[in-house]
Amino acid sequence: SVPDDQRAPPPVVHYKLDSLTTSSDPVGNRETVHILTPLARFYQGYWDNILNLDYPHDLISLGFIIPKTREGNAATAALQAEIAKTQSGPEKKRFASITILRQDFDPPLQSQDESERHKLENQKARRAAMAQARNSLLFTTLGPSSAWILWLDSDIVETPPTLIQDLARHDKPIIVPNCYQRYYNKDKGAMDVRPYDYNSWVDSGTAQNLASKMGKDDILLEGYSEMATYRTLMAKLADLNGDPSSIMSLDGVGGTALLVKAEVHRDGAMFPPFPFYHLIETEGFARMAKRLNYQSYGLPNYFVYHYNE
Amino acid sequence: SVPDDQRAPPPVVHYKLDSLTTSSDPVGNRETVHILTPLARFYQGYWDNILNLDYPHDLISLGFIIPKTREGNAATAALQAEIAKTQSGPEKKRFASITILRQDFDPPLQSQDESERHKLENQKARRAAMAQARNSLLFTTLGPSSAWILWLDSDIVETPPTLIQDLARHDKPIIVPNCYQRYYNKDKGAMDVRPYDYNSWVDSGTAQNLASKMGKDDILLEGYSEMATYRTLMAKLADLNGDPSSIMSLDGVGGTALLVKAEVHRDGAMFPPFPFYHLIETEGFARMAKRLNYQSYGLPNYFVYHYNE
Ligand SMILES: Nc1nc2c(ncn2[C@@H]2O[C@H](COP(=O)(O)OP(=O)(O)O)[C@@H](O)[C@H]2O)c(=O)[nH]1
Ligand SMILES: Nc1nc2c(ncn2[C@@H]2O[C@H](COP(=O)(O)OP(=O)(O)O)[C@@H](O)[C@H]2O)c(=O)[nH]1
Ligand SMILES: [Mn+2]
Ligand SMILES: [Mn+2]
C-alpha cells in the first residue's frame, strides 16, 4: 500500500456562511441555485421549461425525490432519459449537478388523479407525505455553498425564462409567483387562464377564529367550501395586465414555484408534516419561517403555469 | 475550448434512500457517521477523545459550526492546527472529510462562563441561538449517503472509544447516554462523578400542567428551582455500577452526546429555535421527532463526561 505521507489528505473545507451572498443580482454574484422537485409524474413540459431557464446552468443543481411506486419508476426512467440527453448535449444547457433520490416511505395514495388528490379527507395525509418528501430532498441536497432554493413542482410546464432572476431581484427571503393554468374557455371559444394554486394567502380573522376552535391536530385547508376561511387569496388578486413586479406580503405560500434564500432553511425552516399552528407543508413552512423572523412575499401579477390534466 | 463531447458530463447521482441502512451493526454494514459539533471553545480533550473513537475513521465525517466572535476565531485556529496534524498523520486516524462552518449570525451572549450561561433569563435566547447553529450545521452537512448523526458538544472530553457502536447497537432512532462530570469531592478527598446534563427526561403531569398555563411563547427549562417540573431526570437514575445497556424511553433529550438516525432529521426533525410545545432546542427536537413517530431513548448507566471548568 502507498505510504501514508504520499496519499492525498482527506478534504477539509472551511466555509464562511456570512460571505455567501443571496442578492438581487444573483447572476452577477455567481450565486448557486438548487431547483428542488418532488416528482410523482414526469412532464416533458417541465423539462423543456427548465432547459429554457436563462439563469447560467453551471450555477444550477437539480434535485428530485421520486416515490417507489410503479408510476415513480416510470417517472424516473423518463427523467433519466432526458438527463442523459441534456448532460451530454450543448455545454451551455448542462446543469452543474443532478441528484435523484428514491423515497424510503410509501405515498399514502396510489392514485395521482386530480379529483382523488384534491378530496378534503385525503389532503392531510397527502400533504404530510409531500412535506416529508420535500424535507428529505432539502436536508439531503442543501450544501454549504447553496445560496437559493427554487422549489418547482414537476407539473409546472411554463414560466418566463428569467424566472429565477425575476424572483431574486426582489431580494426577499421567500417569494412566490402566482400559479395559474391555461385551459380552453368554451364560453369564449378560446384559450384562457384561470387560478390553480390557492395556497398563497393573507390570513383572516375568520381563519384564525376557525383555527382557535379546532382540535390541536386539525388543519385549515384553502379552497374547500366546507371550510370558508375568507383569507385574501393571491390567486384572486391577479391583474393579467398589471405590473408583474407588484409585490405583497403573505402569511401562507404555495410550493408549485417558490424561491427561498438558503439561510431560511438553514435556520431550521422546513415543511411541517404535522399540524403547525393548524397549517401543514408549504403553508406551515411560511408560518415556521415567520417564527424565525422571515417574511413571505408574493407577486400577484407574475405567472407560472400548471399542467392541465 | 474543448469540444462539448470531449468534456466529462457533470455528475448525476442516483440514491435509493431505502437501501441506506442504519442497523445495529453499523461497522459491518459500513454505515457513515457524521459527528456534528457546535463549537464555541476548543478543548484538547474533545479532540483526543474523538481521535480514540474506534469506529472506522474513514466512515466518519466531522462537521463544526463556530461563532464569528474573537473566542470563535481562537477556537477555529486551535481546531485547524489539530486537523492538520491528524489528517496528515497515520492513515487509520484520518477522518473521511471535515467541514468547518463559520456562523452567519451573532451569538446572543458574549460570555461563555458557566455561571453566566446557565442564568434562567439568559437560557431562552442562548438555546435558541444554539438551536439555530445546530440547524445550520445539520442542513448544510447532511448528504444522501449519511446514515447516522452523532451530536457531540466540544466540551465532551471523555467517552468510551466504542461510543458509536455501543449506542447504535440498540438500533433506536434517537439515543442518548448519560452526561456526567468528573470533579474533586472535598468530603471524600477523592475524585468523584456527578450529573451534568439534565435535559434527558421523562415528562410529568406537573410539567404538562405548568406548560398548559404558560403564555404560548414561554418555555419550560429543566434544572431551575424557580420552575420545578417533577420530571423524571435520567441524570438522577444512574447506577454507577449498573448494566450499561439498560435502556429507557425519554420525552426530552440533551445534546451533549446524542446519536440520531439520519432519517429522523430527513423527515424534518430539527432543533426548534422557537418554543415548540413549550420546548426548545434538543428538548424540542425530541418532541418534534415524536410528532414524526420517532421515540427517543436513553442509557442511564452509560456515561460520557463533560469538561469541568
Ligand atoms: N416524491 C413525491 N412527489 C410527489 C408525491 N405526490 C406528489 N408529488 C409531486 O409533488 C408535486 C405536487 O403534487 P401534485 O399532486 O401536483 O399537487 P397539486 O397540484 O397541488 O394537486 C408534484 O411535483 C408531484 O409530482 C409523492 O408522494 N412523493
Ligand atoms: N456555533 C456555536 N456553538 C456554541 C455557541 N454557544 C455554545 N456553543 C457550543 O455548543 C455546545 C453547548 O454549549 P455549552 O455552552 O457547552 O452548553 P452547556 O454545557 O449546556 O452550558 C458546546 O459545544 C459549545 O462549544 C454558539 O453561540 N455558537
Ligand atoms: Mn400539481
Ligand atoms: Mn457544555
Structural notes for this entry:
Two copies of one chain form a homodimer. With 309 residues, chain A is of the alpha/beta class. Chain A has one domain (28-306): Alpha-Beta Complex (Spore Coat Polysaccharide Biosynthesis Protein SpsA, Chain A), CATH 3.90.550. Chain A has eight helices and 13 strands. Chain A has helices spanning 44-51, 70-88, 114-117, 120-141, 163-168, 205-212, 262-266, 281-291, and strands at residues 12-16, 33-38, 60-66, 97-102, 148-152, 156-158, 174-185, 190-195, 201-202, 232-233, 248-250, 257-261, 296-306. In chain A, strands 2, 3, 4, 5, 6, 7, 8, 11, 12 and 13 form a ten-stranded mixed beta sheet that branches. The longest helix of chain A is centred in the middle third of the chain and has 22 residues, at 120-141. Chain A is globular, with a radius of gyration of 20 Å. Chains A and B meet through strand 1, helix 2, strand 4, helix 4 and helix 7 of A and strand 1, helix 2, strand 4, helix 4 and helix 7 of B. Strand 1 (12-16) of chain A pairs parallel with strand 4 (97-102) of chain B. The structure holds guanosine-5'-diphosphate (2 copies) and manganese (II) ion (2 copies). One guanosine-5'-diphosphate binds next to strand 2, strand 3 and helix 4 of chain B.
